[in-house]
Amino acid sequence: MPLNDTRSTPGYVCGRIIAAYELVAAQIGQELSLNDLNLSATHPVYTIPRLRAGQVRKALARTRKQNPDGVARVEAYISDLVARLDHFPDQLDPEQRAEYVLGEAHQKMAGLPF
After folding, report:
1. How many CA atoms lie within 13 A of 67 on its CB side?
2. For residue 48, what are the CA distances in angstroms to 52, 55, 66?
3. 66: phi then psi, degrees, rounded to nearest 5
4. Which residue has the higher pLDDT, 13 or 40?
5. pLDDT tens sequence across 35-83
6. String of b and e for 55-92 (b: at least 16 CB within 10 Å)?
7. What is the distance between the alpha carbons of residues 92 and 109, in angstroms, rounded to a whole number?
8. If we measure between CA atoms, which residue out of 7, 29, 27 comes closest to residue 104?
9. Contact partners, residue 95, CB within 8 Å, separation at least 6
């Protein structure tokens, strides 16, 4: 199943955000902490802001000098995904976790649009 860009359920969007962070991290040679990734599937409210402000932001800041346009596109893409949520869910129930897995898988299969 292809990426559904209109699907805005919190679990699906959170899965897409984490997958986008993983794809970006892989492109710039940064590995995300497995603990962060495991926690993101159950408690996005703790994980996504920490990744956004921590590991990924620092790695992007180092990359900005070599590729300012690419970093701007990455930041805009992830910001667009984040803006689809009213808030980060504190905890995902089993149905939302299934949506999370779908969103993560769909985003990884689609890659990043640049």
Report:
1. 12
2. 6, 11, 25
3. -80, -30
4. 13
5. 666 667 778 888 888 887 877 787 788 888 888 998 899 899 999 999 9
6. bbeebbeebeeeeeebbeebbebbeebbebbeebbeeb
7. 23
8. 7
9. 11
